[in-house]
């Protein structure tokens, strides 16, 4: 990880959905900061590979591609609420797919030029963890397909969330 002076990322370029300049990936600005050793300790090898190394898990052989319970999908790195089961659909891709994020601040996006393709990467706005990519071949109403890695997500059932709400 590179350490840069704090003023370097403060140029006023076009702001992305995450509030960060479009196309930049200012690791040092994410609210949740952990050392590489801490991430390795907290995450499973699969989650570490996806979230911290921009990995992609195998299609169909992952936890949530066919998961249909009602609830919220959180970031497996930091617990940030990212997606709702209400926006999940079967894209046939073998990865959990959503038509939109939970809200405007949950995720950020940036251009990804790896593997001789131009794709749009999706990352967690709180910890910067890599989640997957977004494509414009999704169904109505948004026309978007947020193609996520199960290993980057942790599911919380709606019933459990309601239980917590009433107990506080
Ligand atoms: Fe996160």
Distance between the termini: 39 Å
Major beta sheet summary: 6 strands, antiparallel
Provide the helix percentage.
10-25%
Second-tier CATH architecture: Beta Complex
Q: How many domains in all?
A: 1
Coarse morphology = globular
- Round the Cα radius of gyration to an integer and report it: 16 Å
Low-confidence stretches: 1-24
Give the neighbour order of strands across the main sheet.
3-4-8-7-6-5
Work out the number of β strands.
Answer: 9
Mean pLDDT: 87
Look at the helices and sheets and give the structural class.
alpha+beta
Distinct ligands: fe (iii) ion
SS field, number of helical segments: 3
Q: What is the strand content?
A: 15-25%
- Quickly name the level 1 CATH class: Mainly Beta
Stated plainly, the CATH topology is called Metal Binding Protein, Guanine Nucleotide Exchange Factor, Chain A
The CATH superfamily label reads Peptide methionine sulfoxide reductase
Helices and strands, in order, run as HHEEEEEEEEEH
């Amino acid at each position: 990880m590179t350490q840069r002076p704090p003023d370097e990322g403060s140029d006023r370029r076009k702001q992305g959905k995450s509030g960060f300049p479009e196309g930049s990936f200012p690791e040092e600005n994410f609210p949740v900061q952990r050392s590489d050793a801490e991430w390795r300790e907290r995450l499973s090898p699969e989650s570490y590979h996806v979230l911290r190394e921009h990995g992609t898990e195998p299609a169909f052989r992952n936890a949530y591609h066919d998961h249909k319970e009602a609830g919220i999908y959180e970031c497996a790195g930091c617990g940030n609420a990212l997606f709702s089961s209400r926006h999940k659909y079967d894209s046939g891709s073998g990865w959990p797919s959503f038509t939109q994020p939970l809200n405007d601040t949950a995720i950020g996006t940036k251009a990804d030029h790896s593997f001789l393709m131009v794709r749009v990467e999706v990352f967690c706005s709180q910890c910067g963890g890599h989640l997957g990519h977004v494509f414009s071949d999704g169904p109505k109403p948004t026309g978007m397909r947020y193609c996520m890695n199960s290993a980057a997500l942790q599911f919380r059932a709606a019933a459990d969330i309601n239980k917590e709400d009433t107990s506080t």
